[in-house]
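Escalated from tier 1: S-adenosylmethionine holo job.
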Amino acid sequence: MSAPRECSLTEFLDLLRESLAGDACWGVVLSQPCRGAGGSPATTESELVQASRPHHKLTARPVELSGERRYQLAERRGKQEFHLNLTADELLTRITSDFGERFEQADLFTPDADYSARIIRKDAARLTKRKPSKSAPALTHDRGKQYLIPEGRPCPFLAEIGVMTPAGQVKAAKQAKFRQVNRFLEFVDDVLPELPPTGVLRIIDFGCGKSYLTFALHYLLTELRGREVEIIGLDLKGEVVADCQRIAEKLGCRGLRFEVGDIAGYVTAGAVDLSVSLHACDTATDAALAQAVRWQAQVILAVPCCQHEVFGLLTDDSLPGLLRHGILKERFAALATDALRAALLEAVGYRTQVIEFIDLEHTPKNLLLRAVRCDRPAPEAKERYERLKAQLGLREFELERRLFASH
Ligand SMILES: C[S@@+](CC[C@H](N)C(=O)[O-])C[C@H]1O[C@@H](n2cnc3c(N)ncnc32)[C@H](O)[C@@H]1O
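Tier 2 regenerated the structure:
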């Protein structure tokens, strides 16, 4: 370590510029939030709150995106983390504006040395040079999961529907929806081999609501997978549907349209290849499953929502030790419902799996029914269904009524 010495902010920023120019910036961190703007003492309550946030920091590390070097910038604010992918110039601009204004400490990691600069007064810092502590970074984009639609890269449709900022930052309130939609896209991507390999893919999103998923499906299939599509988002809510239609037209989403209607009564002009539903309320999921079966959709992906039917039909006599606890009864009813749904789908010729959709910490509605048409009922599936229904003491079940009334 060389003795700390005073330097100007410009000198530190020059070190950063040089390291970026030579692909020798292995990381840069800004920490220690300033007490007030420009490093002056905090004067307002919000500045004090800001100053008391020791976990607020910016970390940038090199990544490779489509063969180009970028810097993934993570901004930690308390428990939340936001990501952006920046070019070297953008990173330099960001560090130049924030070092000394928002943060008092800057650390630069290079192959030759680690540099630490600590603001001591306006435009001056104490610079320390140490032996390098970091090894060459792995240039993968994301240490964790790489989503089909990554955070940090601007995505016009997500900005338009209010999930991302135009710069590509996912809004805090939309993080859960962003993860859900990305996860759902992975399931769609996985089932693509089950769908017609050429021609127009016909898809319906039942209970599309604000249509985060519907727009994302369109993006995945057209932009990322180069397919021609005809996607319909269907919902009961006229105003929401009108808004989605307006956005689809504004973005020029070819083959995407929205309709107002009730799932149960909806009539399509042509065949449907893929039927999706994400959190369609209560028995709306059953209506969606029954319609998809009736149209012989090749693939059905359904993440059910709240569940009331079986909850209301289960009596304490069937499993008294379990059902006397309200919360257990609610969860058991939801699981039993999905087991009955899966058995019925198998009984009408769908290879069916019940899969964890997303970590429980994100939503308790975390199961996905994945059903692929195989044209022959699974052996004994109907018996299995009947036995389960009898064990639960049920005399009727919504999906059975719908399937066999419409079959
Ligand atoms: C919880 S929201 C989910 C919206 C969207 N799929 C998502 O995950 O963001 C459920 C949506 O289903 C719609 N819905 C419920 N029952 C329906 C029905 N019978 N026909 C059409 N839409 C229905 C509601 O209007 C609502 O927009």
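The pocket of S-adenosylmethionine is lined by residues 207-210, 212-213, 234-237, 262-263, 278-281, 284, 287, 305 (CB under 6 Å).
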